[in-house]
Design brief:
It catalyses: L-threonylcarbamoyladenylate + adenosine(37) in tRNA = N(6)-L-threonylcarbamoyladenosine(37) in tRNA + AMP + H(+). Its cofactor is Fe(2+). Its main location: cytoplasm. It is found in: Cytoplasm. By secondary structure, this protein is an alpha/beta fold. The protein has two domains: 130 residues, Nucleotidyltransferase, domain 5; 178 residues, 2-Layer Sandwich (Nucleotidyltransferase, domain 5), CATH 3.30.420. The strands form two sheets. It has a five-stranded mixed sheet with strand order 3-2-1-4-5, with helices on both faces. Strand 7 and strand 8 form a beta hairpin. The protein starts with 6 loop residues before the first strand and ends in a 23-residue tail after the last helix. Bound molecules: 5'-O-[(R)-(carboxyoxy)(hydroxy)phosphoryl]adenosine and zinc ion. Zinc ion binds next to helix 4.
């Protein structure tokens, strides 16, 4: 690690995690996190007002924890990055206002960045610089997209996205109907380990011959979620026990199969041999294994950050900020607004 590389602080508050990360170049120094997930669990989804209030309470203590962990002070920080969008408006506002306050007080440059691009950038903390071009599969609670990444600091090229539910949303909804807690990804991942992924054949959305013309790189998970619901209902109506582990494994297999198939197809049609997977669903153990196994057949290298870096965190924001600083990108103006619908093509504001 070179001390001449800029020290960047990143703040994340787009959903239910308050994250503060500190990086120097590609080196992660601190990744402090406070989650309000337990406060949302009984509602089966994130409650925006509850999330905003939790961010407000957690931001300063999380910042102090990150500074302690990294062994630095605010005066040492060279630049501040913060998630400007997309996400919950009120939740974003807390991080953006906090980051602006810090930038003003310390007279450091501030970068308002895109949460989704940050999910891609975080992988560099674990695996070093991302080869260009690369294909990125972004799978979170709110988004599922395939992107071509030529230069992360300049923008990404969307190739396709979900036309209905996001992959994480499908995990959350299926978990709910199986009686599992929110968020549903981790309990389904665990249950699936004891189930048979081939026990039930669930539909693979947008993979038919006709879909490959119009929706080659798009996803659809809403039909899959409905198919799982119907299957479980039929069992219950017949008075038969629901084999939860098999349902979880078969559902997970269907999601991963489609994600991996389309991601590899994107790599092959674009002649690209690096696939990076980011976002909360990238923490899924089966997705990572399946992608690595199938990609190897085509000489494609798969990069997936460790689970803690896949789900929302401050380190990912610091990582993207660090890229922007290194590329000499002009910082954001202090009056930038949080943008709950920030487009994927915009890396920063
Ligand atoms: O990226 P993220 O932390 O927040 C958003 O930006 O949305 O993603 C959260 C999503 C949730 O839907 C959660 O169920 C899913 O990621 N997730 C998983 C796993 N861990 C988290 N999905 C599948 N398998 C997992 N192990
Ligand atoms: Zn996210």
């Amino acid at each position: 690690m070179s001390t001449s590389e800029p020290l960047v602080l990143g703040i994340e508050s787009s959903c239910d995690e308050t994250g503060v990360g500190i990086v120097r170049g590609h080196t992660l120094l601190a990744d402090a996190l406070a989650s309000s997930v337990d406060e949302h669990a009984r509602f089966g989804g994130v409650v925006p007002e509850v999330a905003s209030r939790a961010h407000l309470q957690a931001l300063v203590p999380t910042l102090h924890r990150a500074l302690d962990e990294a062994g630095v002070t605010l005066a040492d920080i060279d630049a501040i990055a913060v998630t400007a969008g997309p996400g919950l408006a009120g939740a974003l506002l807390v991080g953006v206002a906090g980051a602006k306050g810090l930038a003003l007080a310390t007279e450091k440059p501030i970068y308002g960045v895109n949460h989704l691009a940050a999910h891609v950038a975080v992988d560099t903390l674990e695996h070093g610089p991302l080869p260009a071009p690369a294909i990125a599969l972004l799978v979170s609670g709110g988004h599922s997209s395939l992107l071509r990444v030529d230069d992360l600091t300049r923008g990404v090229t969307p190739l396709g996205a979900t036309i209905d539910d996001a992959a994480g949303e499908a995990f959350d909804k299926v978990a709910r109907l199986l009686g599992m807690p929110f968020p549903g990804g981790p309990p389904i991942d665990r249950a699936a380990r004891d189930g048979d992924p081939l026990a039930i054949t669930f539909p693979r959305g947008l993979t038919g011959p006709k879909d490959l013309v119009e929706h080659r790189f798009d996803f659809s998970f809403s039909g899959l979620k409905t198919a799982v619901a119907r299957w479980v209902e039929a069992r219950e109506r017949a008075g038969e026990p629901v084999p939860v582990n098999d349902v979880a494994a078969s559902f997970q297999h269907a999601v991963c199969d489609v994600l991996v198939r389309k991601a590899i197809d994107a790599c092959r049609t674009q002649g690209i041999d690096t696939l990076v997977i980011g976002g909360g669903v990238a923490a899924n153990s089966r997705l990572k294994a399946m992608a690595a196994e199938r990609a190897a057949e085509y000489g494609i290298t798969v990069r997936v950050p460790r689970p803690k870096l896949c789900t929302d965190n401050g380190a990912m924001v610091a990582a993207l900020g660090s890229h922007l600083v290194a590329a000499g990108i002009t910082p954001s103006k202090l009056d930038f607004a949080a943008d709950s619908a920030m487009p994927l093509t915009l890396v920063g504001v």
